[in-house]
Every structure is written in C-alpha cells, then in structure tokens.
TrEMBL record:
Keywords: Cell junction, Cell membrane, Membrane, Signal, Tight junction, Transmembrane, Transmembrane helix. Claudins function as major constituents of the tight junction complexes that regulate the permeability of epithelia. The lineage of its organism: Eukaryota, Metazoa, Chordata, Craniata, Vertebrata. The chain crosses the membrane at residues 75-97, 118-141, 161-182. Belongs to the claudin family. Residues 1-24 form the signal peptide. The gene is Cldn20. This is Claudin. It comes from Phainopepla nitens.
Length: 219
C-alpha cells in the first residue's frame, strides 16, 4: 500500500513535470531585457525564446516574431530546441507507460509485467529530466556570460526569464518521479532475488504406504 501511494505521488510529480516541460518549451521568455530609458511611458520589455522573440511596450502593444531560420540561430538555441522536444516526448511516453505499470491501476497484466512497465516509465522520466536540465543550464550559462561581458552594451544584455525557471523545476520533478518509480521496482526485484520463495518438500504417499506395510509385518 505504501509503495502504491508513493508511485501515485511520483505520478503527480511527473504530470507537473510534463506540463511544465511543455510550457517552458513554448514560452517566449527564456531571456528578458527591460529597457526603461529616460521615459517610463516608452518602456520596452524584450523577450527571447526558442521559437519566437516578443516585444512588449508599456502602452499595451505586444508583438512577436517567429524564428523561421534554424541555421541562423546560435548553437545553444538549436540544441535547446532539440533536447526540449525530446524531453517532452519522453515524458509523455513515461506517463503512458507508468499508467499501465502502476499498482493502483488494473492494466498491464501480472505483477512482473507491471513492474517492468513501471521501471521503463521511470527510465523515460529520468531521461526526460536530463534532456530538460541540460538546455536550461546551457542557456543560463550563455545569459550569465553575456551579462558579465564588458564588451557587450547594456541594451543587449539579458537576464533569465520565467521559462528557464520553469524548465529547471520541471526537470527536477521528472528526475524525482523517475527515481521513485525505478527504485520501487528495483527494491521489489532485489528482495525476490535475495529471499527466494521456500520450497516445501512433502513425503510422497507411496513412501508412507510402504512404511506402514513394513511396520505391520513386525507386529
């Protein structure tokens, strides 16, 4: 019962991780630059994401431009696109597989099949968390290095946006969920290997009958 509750808790974490992973992939605020200038009326907030760049004016106007050319993008943005999409796909597969392998569901067949499915789903979550953590770390490193570079003007410097923090949190949720699923199945299999089921040997009825016959001869 405790293992089933722990798996359900890990499944909830994985759901939050999947939704956060998809949101972080699509949000345009991976890095933000607020240029207030001399007049607050003409303040501009520039946001750059993996798929589009958006500009928000203090007057209420909002405009976005899609990044159509892939080869013109920096290498870290291209890598972030690929790994975040892979993270979303793997986490979605993990949700489907663990739904079958969880103990609180009636899908997946016998216990061994459910344990294998649960372990496979945990591996998908771990890989999805790694694929989501790598681009966010790399993207944050590029933002910090550009911000600390003295040769870059202040108007071209950016800070990490909300999508980066969402990616970090989602990757953490997916990693925790994957570790919980894998460890729960591994402990069960390890216990079966260390303590195999005892085999009870019962004497055959033929031996009992023979023993009884020999005793009668001596009476």
């Amino acid at each position: 019962m405790a293992s089933a509750s722990l798996q359900f808790f890990a499944f909830i974490l994985a759901l939050f991780g999947v939704f956060g992973d998809i949101a972080a992939t699509l949000l345009p605020n991976w890095k933000v630059n607020a240029d207030i200038g001399s007049n607050i009326i003409t303040a501009i907030t520039q946001m750059q994401g993996l798929w589009m760049d958006c500009t928000w004016y203090s007057t209420g106007m909002f405009s976005c431009t899609l990044k159509y050319s892939i080869l013109s993008l920096p290498i870290y943005i291209q890598a972030a696109r690929t790994t975040m999409v892979l993270s979303c796909i793997l986490s979605a597969f993990g949700i489907c597989i663990t739904t079958v392998g969880m103990k609180c569901t009636r899908l997946g067949g016998d216990t061994d099949s459910k344990n294998n499915a649960c372990f496979a789903g945990g591996i998908c979550f771990v890989l999805a968390g790694i694929f989501g953590l790598v681009p966010t770390c790399w993207y944050t490193r590029e933002i910090i290095s550009n911000f600390l570079d003295q040769t870059i003007p202040e108007s071209s410097k950016h800070e990490p946006g909300g999508a980066v923090y969402t990616g970090f949190i989602s990757a953490g949720f997916l990693l925790i969920a994957g570790v919980i699923f894998c460890s729960s199945c591994f402990k069960r299999q390890q216990g079966a290997w260390i303590y195999p089921p005892k085999q009870h040997h019962f004497p055959s009825t033929e031996q009992e009958s023979n023993a009884g016959y020999s005793l009668k001869d001596y009476v």
